[in-house]
Amino acid sequence: MRDLSQRALDTAVQRGATYADVRVVRRAEESISVKSGRIEAVAFGESEGFGVRVLVDGAWGFAASSGLTMTEADRVAGDAVRIARASATTLRRPVVLDDRPPAHGSYRTPYEVDPFAVPVEEKVADLMAAEAAMTRTPGIAFAEANYSAQREWKSFAASDGSETDQEITHVVANIEANAVSGDELQRRSYADSGQAAGYEWVRGLDLAGNAERIAPEAVALLSAPQCPPGRRTIILDPSQLYLQVHESCGHPTELDRVFGTEASYAGTSFLTTDKLESGFRYGSDLVTIVADATAPGGMGTFGWDDEGVAAQRVPLVQDGIFSGYLSSRETAPRIGRRSGGTMRADGWDRIPLIRMTNVNLLPREGLSLDDIVADTDDGLYLASNRSWSIDDRRLNFQFATEVAYEVKGGKLGRLFKNPTYTGITYEFWRSCDAVADARSYVMIGTPNCGKGEPGQVGHVGHGTSGARFRDVQVGVGRW
Amino acid sequence: MVIAAGEEMLVLADRLLGFAAAEGASQAEVLVDADESALTRFANSEIHQNVATLDRRLSLRFVDGRRVGCAATNRLDEASLRRLAASAARTARLQPELEEAVELPEPGPITPVAGAYSPGTASTSPEMRAAAAREVIAAADAAGVLAYGSLATHLERVGIVNSKGVRAFEERTWAQLITVCMGPDGEAGYAEADAVDATTIDAAAVGREAASKARHSRGAVAVEPGDYPVVLEEYAVADVLDTLGYIGFSALAVQEGRSFHEAGRVVGSELVTIVDDARDPAGMPASFDYEGVAKERVTLIERGVCRDVVYDAQTAARAGRRSTGHGLPAPNPWGPFPLNQLMAAGETPRDDLVAGLDRGLLVTRFHYTNTVHPKLAIITGMTRDGLFLVEDGRVVGPVRNLRFTQSYLAALAGVEAVSRERRLLRGYLGPVVVPALRLSAFTFTGATEH
Q1: Which residues of B touch A84 (CB under 8 A)?
Q2: Which domains does chain A possess?
Q3: Which of A96, A210, A215, B120 is the most buried (most CB within 10 A)?
Q4: In this complex, is the C-beta atom of B265 within 8 Å of any C-beta atom belonging to chain A?
Q5: A320 Cβ partners below 8 Å, 6+ apart?
Q6: Contact across the interface for B46 and A93, Cβ inside 8 Å
Q7: C-beta atoms of B382 and A183 within 8 A
Q8: HEC profile for chain A?
């Protein structure tokens, strides 16, 4: 593949590119889905191709093809240059890249058990056992268990001499039990997460054991009282807190959003660059959030991003103060910084975009998550995300969780169904008065982060331990 | 590399079908999907992303009695196809048998539909896309705002063969221009145009619409959340159809008990009729689904009453009826979806919808909607890119965006007027043809700062 990459780079430069990079990518995927006692799908897929990104006259062009031939390398590189020249006809601000040193080396996701080498029978049996444990619970209408794995071999080369090779392996699993009665449908799920790891991670989830835990809860929720509305103290379990971090910190710290380049689709950000300069208070003193592409097991962990920038840990919020962005070689120089190494593409046929790596709310020494519950007189403990929505500047959010447990006198009590909560991002994070310590810290991989046009799906990670928030609006809408 | 013509693609599919037979398949299906797509994206009134891709993909559904395995590749050499067949066969045979028999669709008549393909879209060049972007930008410049958006062009060649004799091929094209214009204080306006033929999109008109709305959004004031009568522009109505299609109009959702849809149940006002019809020339036509079954017209809601839902081969077999031609590519645990929804036009001139509001809100579009409760069709989301207060039948000024938490079914029950004009748009599931609506009430539950 080095020959093909070099050919495409040479052609691009000969045609006028001042910078070019080529990614040759092969992706293998497998997925298994079991629902209602039957195998819904067992599938394997593979895809390979290459993408050429060029800068010509200060403007970007990109072309990609699944044809891995020298002839196609010439054609695609030529198309990329032609496209860049078309882009340049509207140019107002020529692209300037930061001066990262050329990248060299290789990286491989560490794992113990190759998920692709585990027999399909074993993986099917694991899912069937979990699914059966749910469906044998009286009152369960349907249940499902899902597993998937993805491995990507990625070869990056750039006209500045960079050459890297990476092999990234991700596994994903989830189980879900659904109970239905009349107009009521209640769901409890477990895991709904991924990891940069091998099948050992799936085995460690104990899907069957957790199936026996969640299925009765789904049924119990059918007759549980509606979550009462009001201003409440809430404790977020990591199974919900990870998405709160994702939506209200991860996305608004994407510097491309801040500069408007996602405005027509996902939107912009309230975290404008003046807030970085002024030391904007994003959250309480307890809130420290980092983007860490080196975190073990994270789905946003790698060796280099898709611009050849080495993986690194970037502070986003330090002790409550907004302190940094997710950035790229193009955007970072505009705020006087170097790229934080967050550019990733969804396969060979997409351009790299600023993506979250592993955006983690760091644990705080002091209270365990159990201690926080014990320290709460009157509140709600919310777990497992059910729905999410946030405005186009990432300010007004609303989440629903699968379950709320009443907290009274420091103890978890009865279930409430259909819990929702809403707020304004910085007001919410400023109301955080407890972050749990490392004992409950867990890395949750999100394999479905959408961004960009044409659409791209990103794999990102979020480490959280659970946290408490005061005076939050709970119970939204008319039921 | 150029995308292969239909016959060449079907030859590839036949070859893979032969390899599946050699591996002992009792039935097999091959889907060939070739995509040539391009997208020119602009922000801050300049093109900042500009891409073109070319791919061909072969997918095999291998049936061995009561077991099914699927495999897909974009490596089209003979060795890769043989490996694909062997992989799908191995996958199938490693599984326990299903309780139900597996039956791929039988061949049926497929009448080619007119208007699915446009050479004007298939031959769009980067220079033509850049010219369209420049037209949008010029309109924004003239209004003193900045333009953000994209022009996408897409050529799909899809072929399906199966061992029972299904054999179908079709070329389909579509193009979409979306634009958000934003002013110096963040005021924003949205416009969109979609077509099978990219050359029919009037980029300057899209730019003017978005720019005008942005200018009129300047100086937005806060209003209290609460219940308001509303006029939903077509962009917002598209989200209503998309969401209901996703959570409720699928036979699988009904069979699993998670849909609101029950035949005969009244869910909308008498002004509400929604069908799925891929053969309607007002939409983006297609003649068959991804299982090679002819597309049928399905009435989803008729004058406010639930009628039917869409089926693929699997859900149809469970229900003892025929597929309506709404299958997705295998493997498909999500079930069938209505990919070509149309809402019937009404009799009210579009401009008169606002005139019927004493005091209410005019909504351009929704943002980031999500389902809070599927059976009650309770959805939350934000308004975006143009929200206006209406008093005494006139738009009196822009207001800041609001969050809603609202049952879309209750919203349909409150439809008071439907515009006689409709727009073709592309939703999450696919093309939709929608009018603008006036609703008696819509529940806004929160506010934001812009």
Answers
A1: 50
A2: 2-222 (3.30.2290.10), 230-474 (no CATH)
A3: A215
A4: no
A5: A281, A282, A283, A284, A285, A286, A287, A288, A429, A430
A6: yes
A7: no
A8: CHHHHHHHHHHHHHCCCCEEEEEEEEEEEEEEEEECCEEEEEEEEEEEEEEEEEEECCEEEEEEECCCCHHHHHHHHHHHHHHHHHHHCCCCCCCCCCCCCCCEEEEECCCCCCCCCCCHHHHHHHHHHHHHHHHCCCCEEEEEEEEEEEEEEEEEEECCCCEEEEEEEEEEEEEEEEEEECCEEEEEEEEEEEECCCHHHHHHCCHHHHHHHHHHHHHHHHCCCECCCEEEEEEECHHHHHHHHHHHHHHHHEHHHHCCCCCCCCCCCCCCHHHHHHCCECCCCCCCEEEECCCCCCCCCCCECCCCCECCEEEEEECCEECCCECCCCCHHHHCCCCCCCEECCCCCCCCEECCCEEEECCCCCCCHHHHHHCCCEEEEEEEEEEEEECCCCCEEEEEEEEEEEEECCEEEEEEECCEEEEEHHHHHHCEEEECCHHHCEEEEEEEEEECCCCEEEEEEEEECCEEEEEEEECCCCC
Strand partners, B433: B342, B424
**Interchain contact, B50 vs A49, CB within 8 Å:** no
Q: Cα separations (Å) of A88 from A61, A95, A350, B247, B385? A: 9, 10, 20, 43, 28
DSSP three-state, residue B312: coil
Phi/psi for A76 (5° steps) reads: -65, -45
The Cα–Cα gap between B346 and B422 comes to: 9
pLDDT at B4: 61
Contact yes or no for A440/A468 (Cβ under 8 A)? no
C-alpha of A234 from chain center: 24
Of A40, A453, A477, the CB nearest to B443: A477
Could you report the per-residue pLDDT of B294-332, keeping only the tens digit for each? 999 999 999 999 999 999 999 999 999 999 999 999 999
Tell me if A292 sits within 8 A of A419, measured CB to CB: no
Q: What is the nearest CA distance from A392 to chain B, expressed in angstroms?
A: 7
Please indicate whether, in this complex, the C-beta atoms of B47 and A62 are within 8 angstroms of each other: no
Average pLDDT over residues A335-355: 98
User: Mean pLDDT throughout A280-299?
Assistant: 98
Query: Does the pLDDT of residue B344 top 80, yes or no?
Result: yes
In terms of CA atoms, which chain A residue is nearest residue B136? A90
| Distance in Å, alpha carbon of A365 to nearest chain B alpha carbon | 34
In this structure, what DSSP letter does residue B249 have? S
Query: Once rounded to an integer, what is the mean pLDDT over residues B163-177?
Result: 97
Q: Which residue of A has its CA nearest to B181?
A: A264
**In A, residues 1-40, which contact B (CB 8 Å cutoff)?**
31, 33, 35-40
pLDDT greater than 90 at residue A267: yes
User: What amino acid is encoded at A336 in this protein?
Assistant: G
Domains and CATH numbers, chain B: 6-213 (3.30.2290.10), 219-447 (no CATH)
B369 neighbourhood in chain A, CB within 8 Å = 389
Confidence of residue A21 (pLDDT cuts 50, 70, 90): very high
Q: Find chain B residues with C-beta within 8 A of A418's C-beta.
A: 372-373
